[in-house]
User: What shape does this take?
Amino acid sequence: MQILRAQREDMLALAELYAGLAEAVAADKFLPDWLGNPGKEWPLWSPAARLASRYEWPALSKAVDLLADVSRRSPVVRQMEFEKVISGNGRLAPVMMYESQVVNGRFLGPVTFALQALYQKMGLETTGAELPDYAAVELDFLSFLAEKEAQANDDQQARHWRHTRRQFLQEHAGKWLPQLAHRLSNSGEEAWTAVAHLLAAALNPPKRQKQITPKESGLPQIPDITLCTLCSFCVQVCPTHALSMREDDHATRLTLNPSLCIRCHKCEQVCEEKAIDLQGKPAAAPMLVLRESPRATCPRCGKPTVSEAEVTAVVARLGSHPAWLDYCLECR
Assistant: This one.
């Protein structure tokens, strides 16, 4: 049952990946605000990181690394970057955004009407005035097919939708969208380079899943909370933001969102104190507190400073308790 649930979640992640890519490549018409955010805040991040951790998918793993390095930038600048790439910037031929342009050499070619018939057969219609062979529309259709596979009631239905998705990749999207990915990959712009690699990977998904060991079935836990110093290294490496550090005036908490955890073991591997293992039992709660520590207060102004767990860790490393450690930055 857990394996079937994981496979459904994989397909939903793939659907999210295609949907996010559809929004990204439609930037010449409407740029989503999230494209101005750092890569780890994009809606593409969590599904891409999950799939890269569960499948032998080197191209997607590379794309996730590139996405992690994308910094914040004005959405207006992002749109200008995209328009510059697809226009050719006076040096290259413009990028064709419609399959009929590539396959038939013109708008409204036979492929346009073939796709319209296919979508109608599935009970779908393209919204607005966009043609059915537009890049973003084809990616949205792939998202629809992946979601249908995730929602299948039995293996036969799942195989049907899987076959339809793979056939569509082979006969349509996978034949001409790689040229868009290639042009974007040579843009020299970090955001569009990441989009290019995500697109190229999504157009060639693997069929083989990584071998999941019994160890990978558990959630992160901290059996001995005294070992955890709340250093936040685990939070920084968590690819899906399942781990987070939360603070208020009274305490610092390391929390886990079980639904986002992909059991990648990065938190366990990076923990210098060996406080984390992945033997935790499945949890229905939306948020778990793995470690909590009261916050120390500045003896001069009374403001909360770092957690007492961090103070204890620093003292243990230094072998003494320096006076400056107790004060906030302003009072030092």
About this structure: Residues 2-202 form a domain with the TorD-like fold (CATH 1.10.3480.10). The chain has a mean pLDDT of 88. The longest strand covers residues 288-297.
